[in-house]
Amino acid sequence: MEHFEALIVGAGPAGSFAAELLAKAGVKVALFDGRPEGEPKACGGGVTAKALKAWPHLLNAVGRTVGELEMYSPSGKPLHLQLEEPFAIYSRIAFDLYLRDRARKAGAEIFPAKISARGIRRTQNGWTLREGAGASNPKRLTRPAPRAAGCEWSGQMLVGADGAGSSVARLLAGRLPPSEMEVAFGYRAPLPEVGESPAVIAFLPGWIGYAWAFPRLDHISFGIATTQEAFEHQPLDKLLWDFMLGYYRQREDPKAKLWARRQSDRGRDHRIREKLATTAERYAARIPGLSDKTWDTRRVCGEAWALLGDAAGFADPVTGEGIYYALRSAELFAESFLVQTPLAYEERWREDFGRELKRASQMRRRFYGNFWGAPFTERMIGFARSHRGIKRVLGDLVAGEQGYVDLKKKLARSAMWPV
Ligand SMILES: Cc1cc2nc3c(=O)[nH]c(=O)nc-3n(C[C@H](O)[C@H](O)[C@H](O)COP(=O)(O)OP(=O)(O)OC[C@H]3O[C@@H](n4cnc5c(N)ncnc54)[C@H](O)[C@@H]3O)c2cc1C
Fold it and tell me: Ligand 1, from 162, 172, 308: best to mutate by most atoms within 8 Å of Cβ?
């Protein structure tokens, strides 16, 4: 059995980045991922300007940078945002492969293996991991050499970077209740045949959450993110179809409304719907959305183990953004590990972004709640349409540069600068 200094389960952004940083410093790292080749992680793939500034090499991954964003209030009022700093949209196949490749080049050994939760054992020297019987998915068979179930690896440090449904986290930090998960689902659909393909975020009429259209190089990712409590499959799926229809309709007729109640051109809508019905691929997954209290009580590292990214619960409870936190937690963990103080990781993530994410979960209800008799998001878009300052704050929020801790203060102060 091969012995490693670090065993990292999950090669999403968190696991691959941690593997790269540790391997680069000479640590013997094994990185495992059980996802069938060519199967993307369900994700919008949006990476904020803040993340691109922190790790400019991300721009080398094949993706699309976006300098403009169309936003819509719940009642359908549009707001065009010219972003001072662009964000990027990636296919998660391309993005994950890019980061995994960097880990490999840095010296990490990568195993296409799904680690069985029951196969994780503590030993005197650390841990042993066993591969689960994962060859049931036929796509796995396209791999060059699928392993037989039962391979084992040993190592000193166990890192759980295995996403929102993390079995490593369940074992070491306890299961999160379903109420602390957000739901996101959507469709990958073809790029429009006519017109531009703008990036769109539309706050939902009558529901918590928002819909997005994120154009990638060869398709668009449409989706809705909402809370577990608010999730109702049928009406939300219908809402997403209306949104997709509105998106393509606007490409053909720029004057068309996004959420059209009355159909002005039934033939066109029927044609778009038919095309989507045969081309759109559905996806769905959870995103952690920790409650205010859990931010205080949850521990994400201990003697010879640590959790990163979604496995740790690190996603923005208002927007569901998690890629930045996956990468940042990987970096903070790697830095702590490399100076022989792995337990300092707990304090470091709390200082770095923990307070902000806790504040976001306190804000969630208000962000999607009412303000002066209308949804807060309606007011925010409405004010931004007539106040340059508020528009700028909104741009910073999209860029990941505006936190929630001082959001209210910033919005109030910015209202002093009318257009
Ligand atoms: C629909 C949707 C849309 C989203 N859109 C955005 C967005 O636009 N921008 C953004 O910032 N965030 C978005 N998120 C959140 C984002 O996807 C996650 O926060 C991010 O991927 C977390 O990275 P990670 O590395 O922690 O986990 P993941 O990306 O989930 O990676 C975990 C990896 O572990 C592997 N794995 C799991 N179990 C095992 C096992 N037992 N053995 C081996 N390998 C295992 C998986 O195959 C996977 O590759 C979205 C989430 C969803 C669900």
Answer: 162
Residue 287 Cα to ligand 1 midpoint, Å, equals: 8
Instruction: Mention every residue, 6+ apart, whose C-beta is less than 8 A from residue 54.
Output: 324, 327, 328
What is the rounded average pLDDT for all residues in the chain? 91
Are residues 133 and 153 part of one domain?
A: yes
CA of 272 to the centre of ligand 1 (A): 31
**Integer Cα distance of 153 and 131 in angstroms:** 9
- Report CA(249)–ligand 1 centroid distance (Å): 31
List the one residue out of 43, 72, 397, 360 whose CA is nearest residue 204.
72
Answer yes or no: is pLDDT of 147 > 60: no
Q: Compute the distance from residue 253 Cα to the ligand 1 centre, in Å.
A: 36
CA distances from 157 to 27, 275, 343 (A): 11, 50, 12
Please report, to the nearest 10 degrees, the dihedral formed by the alpha carbons of residues 243, 244, 248, 254 taken in order: 10
Please state the rounded mean pLDDT for residues 89-98: 96
Regarding beta strands 78-90 and 63-72, do their DSSP bridges make them parallel or antiparallel, or are they unpaired?
Answer: antiparallel
Average pLDDT for residues 115-137, to the nearest whole number?
83
pTM of the predicted structure, to 2 decimals? 0.93
- CATH label of the domain that carries residue 12: 3.50.50.60
Contact in structure between 71 and 381 (CB atoms under 8 Å) = yes
Q: What is the pLDDT of residues 187-201, one digit of tens each?
A: 999 999 988 899 999
31 and 118 fall within a common domain = yes
**Residue among 93, 102, 167, 287 whose CB has most ligand 1 atoms within 8 A, to mutate:** 287
In a domain, 210, yes or no: yes
Distance separating alpha carbons of residues 289 and 228, to the nearest angstrom: 9
**Same-domain check for residues 343 and 297:** yes
Strands (E), 147-280: 152-160, 181-189, 199-203, 210-215, 220-227
